[in-house]
Give the backbone structure.
Amino acid sequence: MGLWTRVQEWRSRSRVAKVDSYMRWTLYALPVVLPALGTAGVLADSALTRPWVLALGGIFTFQGILGISIFRRALDHYLWKKPAPWWPLGVQALLFVAAMVCMVVSFGAYGNEYASTIGLFLWNGSLSVFGPWILMVRKLRRFVIACISIALLLGLGVLALGSGWQAAASLTGSVLGLTLWCVYVVRLSGWMLHVMWELETAREAQARLAVAEERLRFGRDLHDVLGRNLAVIALKSELACQLARRGSDAALTQMTEVQRIAQESQREVREVVRGYREADLHTELVGARGVLSAADIDCRIDDTAGKTLPPPVQSVLAWVVREGTTNVLRHADARRCAVRLRVVADTEAVLIMENNGVREHDGGPGSGNGSGLAGLRERLTVLGGTLTYEHKAHATFRLTARVPLAGAGDAEDTAVTGNGGTA
């Protein structure tokens, strides 16, 4: 994969995915880069005369390289409940103990000559052990208790090796400090990623629920209108059949009643469809601003001409705003969205929705995965209008709806009547 391909792939990621990658690679790099740089500095300064310090730096650098995979799996366990890498972490723990032995021996052999470098090794190299561990335990209390126990055991081990109380207390305090360091750096980073992914999931669910809620409302309205009438039609038709077999004139009366109920049902369905198809433009614009602002998207709306448009034109443009807002939430990581409504030469209304942050791998609205824009085209075609969209530079998407003002009312009435008759 070439460099330019990687850059394009990075740009196509969502903002949450970019933050996830940044935090992950920061945690991967810290245990590797800083111990490696410290080891290089000791190597250049001592010319192999400080083997225990070099061994300490080498162990921590090797630990950091191995820890990349362990960190990744630990984060996946914390975020997505995937299996935890307990066995690899055990290997890291053994390396950490070996590094502690090298640290004690180096202090005994060289004194405090490389104390600052050893401290750098310890603070960053410990992330390879304590970092994944803190992501794999459910309760922080268990982690803290375990770290206190390890710190005390290491302190007793230093005393057993013949070092003084000062060295034992220093090691014990360092390990406890590392506990708080890992809680702050690693667990907090994991928690922030968890919250951001939950918000991303909630945003996608919000868009899906808005569509599902509208479908349920339409289905409920149709059920309320047709359910009772269809039951009555079925009953009266059965009664008319029985009366017709007996040669009764009342069968004609019952079939006339069935015809009346069917015509009434047709009228009621037409009213439901009209109510479903009509939407208030001002309400949709206010709702779009509220939803996008809640998603931290700067939404600017210019609808000075909206109140002067015929009701059918306002209704169909309201649907454009609704579908366009849904697409911004579902298909983009937008930071801004602009809605402009203009009347051109008193003959045509033009609505333009433009947003940035289009994800290239998603394809965005109009990529063929959904039917939202196709449905909008059908609505606009009824009024003689058109719908176009285009992907512009800087990951920008523009949706343009054009509706002629002449004859809009007649066209809408014809469409509603036709839909009602079909139903």
User: Anything to note?
Assistant: Residues 210 and 326 are 8 Å apart (CA to CA). The first strand starts at residue 298 and ends at 302. The radius of gyration is 35 Å. The chain is about 75% helix and 10% strand.
